[in-house]
Design goal:
By secondary structure, the protein is α+β, with helices and mostly antiparallel strands. The protein is built from 6 helices and 7 strands. The chain has helices spanning 87-112, 116-126, 133-137, 139-148, 152-159, 163-173, and strands at residues 9-11, 27-32, 35-41, 44-51, 56-57, 70-73, 77-82. The strands form 2 sheets. The protein has a 4-stranded antiparallel beta sheet. Strands 4-3-6 form a 3-stranded antiparallel beta sheet. Strand 3 and strand 4 form a beta hairpin. Helix 5 (152-159) packs across helix 6.
Length: 211
């Protein structure tokens, strides 16, 4: 998909990459969604950087070099080609790419250090998912939030943790799924007065055991 096009392209999470490492092509900008840039490591891929809305992807093309990483959708996303019609534009885009690399490198360092709960909280924030507050606590939206997450294996790769650990961490960070209807209890419990606290653990309460 590295051939030049004029219209934005849509990518579904986990499907064919926008381009592969070693290919040549143009510059892209993320319009919405999230892209991961992977280093090829034999049959597997290692996430190196993450690109968010507004970010440039394929910055090697500004130096007339092949792509260094493989770009694949981490979540459903849309990207637009960025034309470079003059040296002035090229220089401006190179400066933008430099500052972007600094920010995203720091983001990746945060996703790889500390306990897993804090890493997951950072990732959810980067993805723009409302995992805290009343909006997330709403049961219907809680289900939609979980559905918007990448596959568990992809999340585990991004935060450099085991899938089982990530699963336990998400159970603490995210509100519960909508309860399915079932038979009424014979002896219902008395109602509990609301306390004003969210029914899940915030990153400040993260337990160091999840690492």
């Amino acid at each position: 998909m590295s051939n030049p096009v004029k219209e934005p392209v849509r990518l579904c999470a986990g499907q064919d990459p926008l381009f592969k490492a070693g290919a040549t092509g143009g510059l892209w900008r993320v319009l919405d969604g999230t892209v991961r840039l992977d280093r090829e490591s034999g049959p597997s891929r290692l996430p190196v950087l993450i690109a968010l809305p507004g970010d440039l992807v394929g910055i090697e093309s500004l130096c007339d070099q092949p792509y260094q990483f493989t770009a694949i959708a981490f979540t459903d996303c849309r990207l637009a080609p960025v034309p470079v019609t003059s040296e002035t534009e090229r220089e401006a885009l190179l400066r933008e790419a430099l500052f972007q690399q600094q920010v995203r490198t720091q983001d990746m360092a945060t996703l790889r250090t500390g306990n897993v709960l804090s890493r997951l909280a950072c990732l959810l924030q980067l993805l723009g998912l409302p995992w805290q507050g009343a909006q997330a606590a709403d049961e219907a939206r809680a289900d939609a939030l979980r559905s918007a997450l990448p596959a568990l294996r992809e999340l585990a790769q991004m935060v450099d943790a085991k899938a089982e650990t990530v699963c336990r961490g998400l159970a603490q960070l995210l509100p519960p799924r909508r309860r399915k209807s079932g038979p009424a209890r014979v002896h219902p419990l008395p109602p509990v007065k609301p306390t004003g606290f969210a029914p899940w653990v915030s990153p400040s309460m993260a337990i160091g055991a999840l690492s």
